[in-house]
Amino acid sequence: MNTLLQDASLMLDAQKAAARVGLLSDTIIVNGGRPLRGRIDVRGAKNLVTKAMVASLLGDTKSVLRDVPDISDVHVVSRLLEIHGVEITGSPESGTLVLDPTNVAIAQSAEIDALSGSSRIPILFCGPLLHRLGHAFIPDLGGCRIGDRPIDFHLDALRAFGAVVDKLPSGINITAPNGLKGANIELPYPSVGATEQVLLTGVRAKGITELKNAAIEPEIMDLIAVLQKMGAIISIEPNRVILIEGVDSLKGYDHRALFDRNEAASWASAALATKGDIFCVGAKQQEMMTFLNVFRKIGGDFDIEEDGIRFFHPGGDLKPVVIETDVHPGFMTDWQQPLIVALTQAIGTSVVHETVYENRFGFTEALVEMGADITVHKDGLEGEGRRVPRRALEQAAVITGPTKLHGADIEVPDLRGGFSHLIAALTAQGRSRVSNVGLISRGYGDFTGKLEKLGADFSFAA
Ligand SMILES: CC(=O)N[C@H]1[C@@H](OP(=O)(O)OP(=O)(O)OC[C@H]2O[C@@H](n3ccc(=O)[nH]c3=O)[C@H](O)[C@@H]2O)O[C@H](CO)[C@@H](O)[C@@H]1O
Ligand SMILES: C=C(OP(=O)(O)O)C(=O)O
């Protein structure tokens, strides 16, 4: 896509996302330089809730999902489910959704195309729709533009289950003329989405599915917990192997979603960058151990409490680090963007090796415009003592601090890059105009309400 067209479609995505969650405007004016202090609630994880909603399609009875965040991705998946006949009561605003799949039906609606372009979740409808209806059609997917994001592992897995995949100019048509049968699948890389594809398809396929090189992110473990409540038989073996014994039918579930560790890590980074103190109600230590280690190495501090985690800047200088993003239990790729803003304030040179996506440093351009010293090595950097095996398409960012950030006009490029821009604007001296903030509402529920609670000085642009 040419850049102008891409910019235009980004703006459209951001405006749609902003409208879905009722943001007053897609642009905010931030007067930076104030520490963020206070308590905020972290609800269920975007990367679990949206998948658990899809899982409801597999049940014969209603499912209840609790701690649902009011984010635009949840609104998109709700609408997609409704178009396919799922009756939804409750609301993301209230935090509880009741999903009734009794009348699931083949859907033909122009709205599906538009909605699919806003999120990557539609690809996960394949297995459940094939089991329920024998047919699925998936138009072009959306989600953050941080690399090519192919779906070859998903399609290969579906073929291994016996599905017939037809790639059409308008999308992908998938059928299962002979039903779906258990399969032996080995992923070339522990992809989160492809692992979920195999889980959501294998639970009702005939026979046993063995998945090798599976992703084991906490959100996947929580999805497995959801599926077990529904009647699935799934065991997690050593060395990234998951075994699924297919069953004939599944029922609905009642589940409280795992908290959003990415949201908690983002607010923690905001506390560090702005020299603040933020208590994330609902955050838990277990799923954040790798982040907490790095946070401490940089010079941040935290208190683990019964009802959440307090992240704070204890005073003193911040220290540089070398980070390699990786699959769980490594340092998650979605954490690096917000943390890089804090690293611009550390004394010395930090290196972030991005090994999961091949194009995830675009957001640093705006930080450089605001005064940061960041160099992106587009072909990666060889480094001493690397732990993660080098991937062909990785990149590295070298951040040298401390640098004073100043306000600027910046445009949110994607979800985590956008949150990073927001933190940079809050850290900077002076006024920033941050546009496209609707994209941030893809993954951060009520982020403007939370900013208000934390004492940020900002207003919506007219
Ligand atoms: C909605 C959701 O849960 N999104 C998360 C999910 O994305 P998502 O599930 O899309 O990410 P994957 O784990 O699948 O992608 C990881 C890597 O595998 C590659 N790949 C993936 C599938 C495929 O068919 N072919 C292929 O080559 C991707 O291009 C990427 O380089 O996990 C990512 C990695 O933790 C997170 O950053 C995202 O926040
Ligand atoms: C990359 C992300 O999300 P998605 O896969 O939904 O684009 C993210 O949450 O940072």
TrEMBL record:
Source species taxonomy: Bacteria, Bacillati, Actinomycetota, Actinomycetes, Micrococcales
Entries under HAMAP family matching the protein: MurA
Amino acids binding phosphoenolpyruvate: 46-47
Pfam families linked to this entry: EPSP_synthase
EC annotation from Swiss-Prot or TrEMBL: 2.5.1.7
Active site: 144
Enolpyruvate transferase domain ranges (all copies): 31-451
Keyword Translocase: no
NCBIfam families referenced in this protein's UniProt entry, alphabetically: murA (TIGR01072), PRK09369.1 (NF006873)
2-(S-cysteinyl)pyruvic acid O-phosphothioketal: residues bearing it: 144
Function recorded in the entry: Cell wall formation. Adds enolpyruvyl to UDP-N-acetylglucosamine.
Native organism: Subtercola lobariae
GO cellular component, as recorded: cytoplasm
Keyword Amino-acid biosynthesis on entry: no
Catalytic activity of the protein: phosphoenolpyruvate + UDP-N-acetyl-alpha-D-glucosamine = UDP-N-acetyl-3-O-(1-carboxyvinyl)-alpha-D-glucosamine + phosphate
Name by which UniProt lists this protein: UDP-N-acetylglucosamine 1-carboxyvinyltransferase
Protein localization: Cytoplasm
